[in-house]
Amino acid sequence: MPVSTPSRHTLALAAAVVISGLAWPMAAGASPILGQVDTFEDGTVAGWQVGSPTHPAPPANIASGGPAGVDDNFMMLSAFGAGVNEGSRLTAFNLAQWAGDYLAAGITSISMDVRNFGPDEVTLRLLLAGPFTPFPQNLAVTLDSILLPAGGDWISVSFSLLPADLNVLLGTAAGALSQATELRLFHNTDPTFTGPTSSSPPVTAQVGVDNIRAGAAVVPEPAAISLLALALGVSWPAFRRRAR
User: Which of 24, 157, 218, 228 has a beta carbon 3.0–4.6 Å from 146's, enabling a disulfide?
Assistant: First the structure.
């Protein structure tokens, strides 16, 4: 039986990641649980990392000033812009509590509180990748993006993880969601992880992150939809047919 080899696209993507200085990790953690949340109140960064021992400012736990104010801990992510060998891009990933099977857990969204303390505008996205053998078999980026103006205040945001809301770069959306080795939060104006901007364009920023929560899409109850259908002057079965 012939041995399968990675496609040119897979090899090119893996090479781009390595060149960017963001080598893919190989370990996986426990499966995520619906409703889990990283509050950072324990004084740690809850397993979030940058993967480089020479990064000038890896993720840090800040003891006060989160969205709840005084004594509310949060995680600070820093980037120092073009010309910096390490730390030029805003990115952090987690291999522990955010690695696993999102489909089985019923997780269809991830919400968080974020604030841009820095001088540059930042566009945040999420990435799901895995498994690695050694190349990533599945890689998907959220089409949703969150624009953070420079010097803004704390805001609550949510990223949809529904398959239709993911830009699949390798493999399938279902594969990325069910076999996630890594969850990454990063800055990129495009829903990609390659191309002219590499994995993430250089940016000068300090972004606070708090209350990272695994959630599920809210599905309206049939009774509530029936009331809506009645208001629109159609029957419930007809409303369902139109929705389909």
Answer: 157
